[in-house]
């Protein structure tokens, strides 16, 4: 009960302070085939963008407020007949890795992997998804929520 009371007090003070809501979710509208190392994955189909902090043209979230944020990344890949392939993606904050997804050389089944990161951001800090290592041919599945990126403000400072 004490924890619930503390949580309610926190929510009440947040509402009284007029804190903006910051939350986004975007998916790939189409598959991306063989992206190169360093490529920023642009999740171009915005589902939610409260606070307008996610840019679906460049694929970058820019923090509007000081605070603690949660980010999640889910990526899927269809079966791949090539013998050996692997694909690495990083969740990045200002050019520093904060999350990692690895799609291995499975040839018979769909692969679906995800990661979550909880980080403190200052205004203008940026978060995005970037290709790291690619071996062989690979595809990130688009459409129908196969691959998506999202995040939200947990609490402002």
Automatic annotation (TrEMBL):
Pfam family for this entry, one: C1q
Subcellular location: Secreted
Gene3D superfamilies the record matches: 2.60.120.40
TM regions (residue ranges): none
A single cellular component GO annotation: extracellular region
Key words, A-Z: Secreted, Signal
Start and end residues of each C1q domain: 17-157
SMART domains to which the protein is assigned, alphabetical: C1Q
Major localisation: secreted
Protein name: C1q domain-containing protein
Lineage of the species this protein comes from: Eukaryota, Metazoa, Spiralia, Lophotrochozoa, Mollusca
């Amino acid at each position: 009960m004490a924890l619930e009371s503390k949580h309610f007090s926190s929510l009440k003070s947040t509402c009284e302070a007029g804190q903006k809501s910051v939350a986004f979710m975007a998916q790939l509208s189409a598959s991306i085939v063989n992206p190169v190392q360093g490529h920023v994955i642009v999740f171009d189909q915005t589902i939610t963008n409260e606070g307008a902090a996610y840019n679906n043209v460049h694929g970058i979230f820019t923090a509007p407020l000081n605070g603690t944020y949660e980010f999640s990344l889910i990526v899927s890949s269809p079966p791949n007949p090539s013998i050996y392939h692997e694909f690495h993606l990083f969740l990045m904050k200002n050019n520093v890795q904060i999350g990692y997804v690895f799609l291995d050389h499975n040839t018979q089944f769909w692969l679906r992997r995800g990661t979550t990161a909880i980080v403190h951001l200052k205004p203008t800090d940026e978060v995005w998804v970037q290709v790291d290592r690619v071996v062989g041919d690979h595809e990130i599945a688009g459409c129908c929520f196969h691959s998506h990126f999202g995040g939200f403000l947990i609490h402002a400072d």
